[in-house]
């Protein structure tokens, strides 16, 4: 029997995953574009300002790590979802929507935090860079 028919409060799996993908696509796109175009410029600004060994470089190194290994993390997460759906433990349909919503919220928050950290780091480096010129 279909679990969604037994419990009308459950959302079908395709709706849940489609909503998660729709809400994850913009922040992942923005993060990827910022890693390609903005981070190299920001690293140059920090290097020219003399702040190479600061904690803000740690944020950029973490972002670089996830950018380099993002496909691997994404494939592992999709494999985990396929495994859970395939083995369909009785608990997963009840928690699917909440789990995916929490994941989407955390990833959106991480991208927002990363953009705020980029802005703050540029504002910190700007006065030092202005003194050098």
What is this structure's SSE topology?
Layout: H1 3-6, H2 13-49, H3 56-87, H4 92-132
Helix pairs in contact: 2-3, 2-4, 3-4
Indicate the mean pLDDT. 82
Q: Which regions are unreliable across 5 or more consecutive residues at pLDDT < 50?
A: none
Rounded to an integer, what's the Rg over CA atoms? 20 Å
- Helix segment count? 4
Multimeric organization: single chain
Tally of DSSP β-strands: 0
Structural class: mainly alpha
Distance between the termini: 71 Å
Largest sheet: none
Order of helices and strands: HHHH
Helicity level, as a percent range? over 70%
Net shape:
elongated
Strand fraction band?
under 5%
Structural summary, described in words:
The chain is built from four helices and no strands. The protein is mostly helical and 133 residues long. The protein has a domain at 88-133. 9% of the residues are buried. The model has no long low-confidence stretch (mean pLDDT 82).
Fill in the keyword field for this structure.
single chain, 133 residues, mainly alpha, elongated
Quick structural summary:
The chain has 133 residues and is an all-alpha fold. Helix content is 86%, strand content 0%.
